[in-house]
Amino acid sequence: MAPFRLDVVTLVPQAFTPLGELGVIGRAFASGIAVLHTHNPRDYTTDRYHKVDDQPYGGGAGMVLKPEPVFAAVEAIPVQARRRVLLLTPQGKPLCQKDLHRWVEDHDQLVLICGHYEGFDERIRGLADEEVSVGDFVLTGGELPAMTVINGVVRLLPGTVGTAESLQDESHSDVLLEHPHYTRPANFRGMVVPDVLRSGDHGAIALWRQQQRQLRTQMRRPDLYVRWSDQQQSSTLTMESHGSTSMQFRIGNGYDIHRLVPGRPLILGGVTLDHPDGLGLDGHSDADVLVHALMDALLGALALGDIGKYFPPDDPRWKGADSLMLLEQVVALVRDRGWQILNVDAVVVAERPKLKPHINAMRSNLAQRLGVELDAVGVKATTNEGLGPEGREEGMSSQAVALLQQIGLT
Q1: Does residue 140 have a known ligand-binding role?
Q2: pLDDT of residue 407
Q3: Is 124 annotated as a binding residue?
Q4: Is 116 annotated as a binding residue?
Q5: What's the CATH code of the domain at 42?
Q6: Is 135 annotated as a binding residue?
Q7: Residue 244 pLDDT > 50, yes or no?
Q8: Is position 359 annotated in a ligand binding site?
Q9: Averaged over 212-230, what is the pLDDT?
Q10: Which residues are in the tRNA methyltransferase TRMD/TRM10-type domain (predicted)?
């Protein structure tokens, strides 16, 4: 997969150099997840003084950024298929988290135009698809707002942050503020970590965190709480026939099959097994068909596509990837959409080896990643009685079903 391309039109390109050394953002640039190019309008001037500003028509204080060098700089930038041009200006639409998600999901290139001086020639606005503001205040230029956008976008790209779940439930991801966080020690100067967080009950923890997010938002940002309440009301699905009842549940089905080949590991449910003939499952990742079927079931329940959409088989980032880590990202996506997992059930179709001794270990691995109790995870194994590709030991397959419940509507 090609890196996400960021092009910045700025009179001070050196201001963006520190981004290459900025923690996970810098590592994302270094590893090729994203690439940053700067374009100085001064390089596109035609006069001997490289003039990029002029006095405003009609008089007034300050200087105005000229259109010619800005147009020339933007027009010299290579155009990718899904490009979006943003103009950073105090007059733009206020930036929010959903904008960052939208740009990551819908585009593979962002061009950011930074204003400077008193303002820019009005005709420059015609270059932009969107005008963006980071707040009701004025800065000397658009560089700091552009860096804010870059930081917010790059951290959402797959592979930038260690686990997708760390992006989940954070402030503004779904309007609500983030829940409180605690780490060791459990008791610090009489301030004690809530018992529920130390209980090991993942369902109770998820419920407590959601309640805290709602309470914190209501107290600290009542404007956001009203917006969230309105969204919850409008997003509640209703049955149109024979009266209306809230649709609080979703069911999804998943299926996956992989070929058995020599020289590959055999991993099912995160458990490494030994095949009598030394065979393993072929695939771009670790080819864990059980986990892959389960991920497809979760995505299918919310009509979010299949795992190939999120982890393309031609993307080197997922080569040899641990499927349980990919499952964590899918679970985070499900929760980000406002749903919780109630239970899952799966069957693995394989002739050999015997899977029964390993079923509980598989269930435990899955329950831990799904954030549910062990008894909410079903895993079964069967043979195909010598029939089909599984019966001929050409491959192994798995089918899964997942039941989801909408958070906050119980």
Answers
A1: no
A2: 83
A3: no
A4: no
A5: 3.40.1280.10
A6: yes
A7: no
A8: no
A9: 87
A10: 5-225
Distance CA 405, CA 296 (A): 17
Residue 226, marked binder: no
**248 backbone φψ class: left, alpha, beta (φ>0; ψ -120 to 50):** alpha
- 307 is an annotated ligand-binding site residue: yes
> 3-state DSSP call for residue 119?
strand
Please choose, from the candidates 365, 342, 341, the residue with its C-alpha nearest in 3D space to the C-alpha of residue 268.
365
CB neighbourhood size of 386 (10 A): 10
pLDDT of residue 341: 95
State whether residue 102 is helix, strand or coil. Answer: helix
The whole-number average pLDDT for the span 131-138 is 93
Domain assignment present for 242? no
Domain C-terminal end among 122, 154, 186: 154
Burial-class residue 279 by CB neighbours within 10 Å (0-12, 13-18, 19+): buried
Q: Are residues 143 and 50 in the same domain?
A: yes
Same domain, 254 and 402: yes
Q: Last residue of a domain, which of 175, 208, 235?
A: 235
- For the cut 50, the answer to whether the pLDDT of residue 306 exceeds it is yes
> Do the annotations mark residue 159 as ligand-binding?
no
Decide: 87 and 124 in contact? Cβ < 8 Å.
Answer: yes
**Residue 180: DSSP 8-state:** P
Q: Is 16 annotated as a binding residue?
A: no
pLDDT digits (tens, 9 = 90+) for 91-128: 999 999 999 999 999 999 999 999 887 789 999 999 99
Q: What is the model's pTM?
A: 0.57
Q: Are 268 and 355 in contact (CB under 8 A)?
A: yes
Cα–Cα distances in angstroms (integers) from residue 317 to residues 32, 164, 368, 391, in the given order: 10, 14, 24, 33
Give ∠ CA 362-388-286 in degrees, rounded to 5.
35
- Residue 320 annotated as part of some ligand binding site: no
For residue range 222-231, list pLDDT tens digits in order.
888 888 888 7
139 is in an annotated binding site: yes
Number of folded domains in the chain?
3
Mean pLDDT across the stretch 295-315? 91
Which SS3 state, helix, strand or coil, does residue 266 take? strand
Q: Any known ligand binding at 331?
A: no
Q: Looking at residue 174, what is its pLDDT?
A: 66
332 inside domain:
yes
